[in-house]
Design goal:
Blueprint (H helix, E strand, L loop, with lengths): L3 E3 L7 H40 L10 H25 L5 E6 L5 H8 L2 H4 L3 E6 L11 H48 L5 H7 L9 H30 L3 H19 L2 E4 L2 H15 L7 E6 L4 H11 L2 E5 L5 H10 L6 E6 H7 L9 H9 L4 E5 L3 H17 L7 H30 L8
Parallel strand pairs: 1-8, 2-3, 2-6, 3-5, 4-5, 6-7, 7-8
Helix pairs in contact: 1-2, 1-8, 2-15, 5-7, 5-8, 6-7, 9-10, 11-13
Length: 443
């Protein structure tokens, strides 16, 4: 039986697609809420214990139960939000191997424009002929995390510098003062340093002892000002520390995705290592939407089979018959992951015409190899690419039907309870804090 063609989605899976996006958005929001709540619970708990234990703090005893209740609600919100965020963000992300038409811009454009439609739950891997451009994390995610990542990197760099060199700077500074004072004492001028600091600073030139004393005094002022500035930055960032740390972590994931979106394979040993790395990274929340593997020609077939075994589905373009395509159809069509056949509408229509007139030997062999298969066709027009996106997404989702297990049902039930606790706990904590007589907290 001849292969059939289709250009529309049998099922759009729009509900599944948008529910995954909503889950990811809600999970990210709950991650921020969790970080803030746990941070507030930590700081608030320390302060609450301090003023409660200290009998001379002036705290109104009638407010202690309310403070304890608010702290318990905030802690419960932090723990439950963290659990719910981990469940909501655990979206199944599958990897698909795209075997395309080399040096054919139409097919590359058709599938590349579908990446935004697929990228939230499908990661695409393709083998390189130096024409396909890799695609890292989504542009919006890169832009939204860039500013916070810069702040996080700046604070981390200052912290690393202080922890590494700050101690030696202080030691050298103190050693310079000791050496200066010792030198003046050895020369019979024990108060020369004090005289230099108390003299006329506008006088120039001055003796070496005076210049050294004033230089060290200025360095002390600059060092102290820098220390105050660093402390001020930390104080400002203290309430937002969980947000900044989370943004820095996301930014690091984005940079890692950009770094790993192109890989090179020249040997079988590298193939094993790279295929495992790509497969492991594809399930991450932030990962390249299109990973391009530049593969050496002698190990091309081994690379196709190795990556196909790592993927959950294979996307095979059958627009143009060739010996390599026939081999791929035969090898991948017998067992292994599901294969989704796609092709340019005009070329597939000619290939599968009822008469089969004018077909070459390779075309006829490809026609026979596609018996009983379905081919999703695409057009190069804008509307044709939109229809192809929907049809391709539906076909890929069909290969991975959802499976709700008993353990999964229990996890979702607990997650729903956790979300309810987050909502109720946030409302209760805000209500208690808003009703406090703040003037009575400390007499």
């Amino acid at each position: 039986m001849l292969a059939t063609t289709r250009s529309r989605a049998r099922r759009s899976f729009l509900l599944r697609r948008w529910s995954r996006r909503a889950r990811g958005l809600l999970g990210g929001l709950l991650s921020v809420v969790s970080g803030l709540a746990l941070w507030v619970a930590l700081l608030g708990g320390i302060l609450a214990v301090g003023v409660t234990v200290d009998k001379d703090s002036g705290l109104d005893p009638a407010l202690r139960p309310e403070i304890l209740a608010a702290w318990l609600w905030v802690a419960a919100v932090g723990v439950c939000a963290r659990y719910a965020a981990r469940t909501l963000r655990a979206i199944p992300r599958r990897m698909v191997l795209w075997l395309r038409r080399f040096r054919h811009t139409d097919s590359i454009l058709a599938v590349s424009t579908a990446l935004d439609h697929l990228g939230h739950s499908w990661r695409v891997v393709t083998l390189d002929d130096a024409t396909a451009e890799p695609s890292g994390a989504a542009a919006g995610l890169r832009l939204t995390t860039s500013a916070a990542s810069v702040v996080h990197r700046g604070v981390a760099a200052i912290t690393r510098w202080i922890s590494t060199w700050g101690v030696w700077v202080v030691r050298a500074y103190l050693a310079a003062w000791v050496a200066l004072v010792a030198w003046t004492v050895a020369h019979g001028e024990p108060f020369a340093v004090l005289d230099a600091l108390g003299g006329d600073w506008r006088q120039w030139p001055v003796p070496a002892v005076v210049a050294a004393s004033r230089f060290l005094a200025g360095a002390a002022v600059v060092t102290f000002a820098g220390l105050l500035g660093f402390v001020a930055v930390y104080v400002v960032l203290l309430p937002l520390l969980p947000v900044v740390m989370m943004a820095g972590s996301v930014g690091e994931s984005v940079r890692r995705a950009e770094l790993h979106k192109r890989q090179t394979v020249t040997t079988l040993a590298e193939l094993t290592q790279v295929s495992a790395t790509v497969a492991a990274g594809s399930g991450a929340a932030v990962a390249p939407r299109l990973t391009v593997l530049t593969v050496a020609t002698p190990i091309w077939r081994e690379a196709v089979l190795a990556m196909a075994n790592r993927c959950h589905a294979v996307l095979l373009d059958v627009s143009t018959a060739s010996e390599a395509l026939l081999w791929e159809v035969r090898e991948l069509g017998t067992g292994g992951p599901p294969v989704v056949f796609v092709g340019e509408e005009a070329a597939v229509t000619r290939l599968l015409a009822p008469t089969g007139a004018g077909l070459g030997a390779e075309d006829s062999a490809l026609r026979r190899a596609l018996d009983d298969c379905e081919v999703i066709t695409y057009r190069t027009t804008a509307w044709g690419r939109v229809r192809f996106q929907r049809a391709l997404y539906g076909a890929l989702e069909t290969t991975a039907p959802p499976r709700l297990t008993l353990a999964g049902a229990r996890r979702w039930a607990v997650t729903c309870v956790a979300v309810v606790v987050v909502a109720v706990g946030s409302w209760q904590a805000i209500t208690i804090a808003a009703a406090w007589p703040w003037s009575r907290l400390v007499d």
